[in-house]
Amino acid sequence: MNAGAYREPVLIEKNGYTVDEIGNQVASWAEYFRGYAYMNNLSGSEYWEAAQTQSQNTVMFIFRYHPLIAKMNTREYRLVHRGEAYNITSIDNVQFKNETIKIRAVRKE
């Protein structure tokens, strides 16, 4: 894939806790990684698999490999693109070559 394909700005946020003014812990999102991705809607068998689980708002984000992205999990992180938040459903280091990482995510309703 050529370098010009990675043109969509994407923010990755990590879930954490902050302390409010009276000392209570409050869940919050903090910036973890900011980069560019190639985005693609699901097609073929991936689309029909998502349709069976009512996940038609699923989008594939493809990033160049970065160690911070490789350390992520699906529970503590989310993607933000153009003001829309996406829950991560899977993270795939393609063929373990450390060249590209595919992240499948579902837009929050």
Automatic annotation (TrEMBL):
InterPro entries: Phage_SPP1_head-tail_adaptor (IPR008767), SSP1_head-tail_sf (IPR038666)
Domain of life: Bacteria
Protein name: Phage head closure protein
